[in-house]
Amino acid sequence: MSDLLNMLGLAQSAELLSLSPPGWGGNLLRGLLNSLQIAFGAFGMGLVIGLFGAYGKLYGGPILRDLLAVYTTVIRAVPELVLILILYYLGSDLINKVSEAMGYGRVEISGVVAGIWVLGVVQGAYSIEVLRGAIQAVPPGQIEAARAFGMPPLMLMRRVTIPAMMSFATPGLANLWLIATKDTALLAIVGFSELTLETRQAAASTRAYFTFFLAAGALYLIVTLFSQVIFGRIERWARRGQPSLRGGPR
Amino acid sequence: MDSFSGGDPASASSGRDKEAVRIEELHKSFGELEVLKGVNLTARKGDVVAIIGGSGSGKSTMLRCINFLEAPTSGRIYVGGEHIAMRDDGTPSNRRQLERIRTRLGMVFQSFNLWTHRTLLENVIEVPVHVLKQPRAEAIEKAQSLLKRVGLGDKADVYPAYLSGGQQQRAAIARALAVDPDVMLFDEPTSALDPELVGEVLTVIRDLAAEGRTMLLVTHEMKFAREVADHVVYLYQGRIEEQGAPEQIFDAPKSERLQQFLMSIN
Prior knowledge:
The complex is a heterodimer.
Chain A: H1 2-8, H2 11-17, H3 25-59, H4 62-77, H5 80-101, H6 111-137, H7 140-148, H8 153-183, H9 195-206, H10 209-238
Chain B: H1 9-14, E1 19-30, E2 33-44, E3 48-53, H2 59-66, E4 74-79, E5 82-83, H3 95-102, E6 105-108, H4 120-131, H5 136-149, H6 165-177, E7 183-187, H7 195-210, E8 214-218, H8 222-228, E9 231-236, E10 239-244, H9 246-251, H10 256-265
Parallel strand pairs in B: 3-8, 3-9, 6-7, 7-8
Antiparallel strand pairs in B: 1-2, 1-4, 4-5, 9-10
Helix pairs in contact in B: 4-5, 4-6, 5-6, 6-7
């Protein structure tokens, strides 16, 4: 193994990337884990906002609909980097103000929680539109049938609308998840040690920029490939009962 | 044909004088357009009422007002003698009451409206298990016998999209039967079917009529209406123009419009 690396002139890179110090591989993996944690939390928060927001936009009163329209428009209009700065400083400032007013003094906000909150608010705006489109794509007759048989609204949402819209929502949600994994890189700007910031620090201390950024790129690629497999499965499950456009066995 | 586990024909016919559905002064407007202009109709237990009329006569709207899929503009709806509570604007005012009454009404739609992400068996057990909270094993057993009854015993695990329209509609009838409804509402059940598939669905409905089920049936199949109905209602522009026994309606129509209507479809 080491002979092969020597032959290819990669021995130095392997050493730099090794998991234990003085290698920086451990730092990179820790960064990746932080990134994934935030992406997962933000995506989940986005889904919750998206589901309620989509229902609000479709069935809510005029005031709720207007508020949601403002939310989705503003969030989707402003560059994410700017949003992250605004939401991060606004969020921590608000929490500190509240905390001081209640006499607790300033609090230290966890980077993970802040990251999830910031990216979750962004993801929510996009999720609302993905889910709204998916809900509208459900054949109205299926919802009407559930109503005609006396299904209460929440059960109808759980048993009919959500499963039926999944096949329409999955491609859009897969996009959102992949965007979430990569948006975590933007959190480097507020000093959160996710994969990109860890990479930059490793690269700067060793001057091996190419090695570390290539390694980080590979990690992002692995996450993407793995996600595609998972979402492929989810989509196949969501599309059960729908003949494939390509034909073939069910 | 398997005997049906849910309904007892004898008790249905003995309670014949009891009212199943009563519609009083039903009005329904869509915006400016008044589709129903004061309809009164009573169906007693065991009755098979066929509702006929040209397109736009309001027959489907009338049926859909019974279970409030369309909110009436004004009027009163009674199911099994119970008045469905509604506000002045026609929307139901007691959601729980409406949901309870809806479980007593088995609706069959023109376009089947099966849940495409569930197999036929899952479609049939959905309401008994989740809405009526029946034990799953019991519901499955009953669903299997219902599917067998409509000739789909071997298709229980198939998704609706892989079936013909006639098969889907028979499955939809099994789904409606699974709640053991007091009244079955058929909204043009054969209108979306290819002509060669109409017969198989009518056979199932004929069979239900024969066992004494209460049914309200909106249909374009005049021969069938004449054969299975006890009572035929002819709607014209949102009003009941003429009603009576099938022989009277089809052989000796009094109204000129009904005469014209019958001529035009023959």
